[in-house]
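ingest -> validate -> predict -> emit
validate: passed (alphabet ok, no gaps, 288 aa)
predict: started
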Amino acid sequence: MSNENEIAFLCKRLKELREKNNCTMDEMAQKLAVNGIAPNKSSISRVEAGKTSEKTLFETARKYCEAFGMSEKQTDQFLRGERVAVPDTSALLKNSQLIDELNKEYSKVIIPKVVVDELDNIENKKSGPLGRKAWEVIRGISYGDRTILMGYTGDSDEENEDCKIIYIAQEASDKYHCKVDIITEDTDYSAYLKGNESVAALHLREYMATKQELINMSKISKFHRLRMVLSTHGNYVLLGRCAGGRWRYNHCGCSFRHINRHSVSGNTDFSAEHRLSRYCSIHEHRLG
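emit:
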């Protein structure tokens, strides 16, 4: 970390992570105990308030992540510090919910005015799915403290839209003293950004594959243990996550009355949390 903004952002994330997992400061201190010796509540408070050294903050943040069962990759993402996201037109047309998703992970989302203008042009000139998608994106933007419209103030002779977006991203980096990710579906930014240490292009697909929301890790742990039980009993095989955050299972020929009161067959989508709660209430000894 290199500045006060990033330190303050990490402190805020630590508090959010602890509270998201329904953990008090006293309980957090117990989770961080080493050889039975736990830090006191005031130590946790000082860390979350940014009143420790940067080294102590960084070390404690890693311990937080470990205590809640985060993987090394999840930990690295969590510790990356304050960043600003600048989505371009291609990314927003690909994912009309992108701004909401970015707001969950980035400290600020900058919407370039040139992007809004381009979306307006698409909405006005094109019918069909693309025009409707542009309309959805524009109507879905809610400006505020974290979602900010920023205009282009550079060379008036500049005609390249990508260069204008890069200029705005650089201005955002200078203003908020942090690194900026341009979220895009295009590959043209790489040549323009070569050697730039404060602004980077992040392909939408890569962002979606690595994005991280603060989540209740204990609930995820229960899902993993449920998968082990399902595999042991041979009733269902977990296939993966489906749209809407639901889990997909493949029925293997056995009725599974423990989880579903109705008969099922073939590929079925279940509300994982609902099925898990019913299953745990009957077979808590197998998951405890």
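The CA atoms of residues 41 and 140 lie 42 Å apart.
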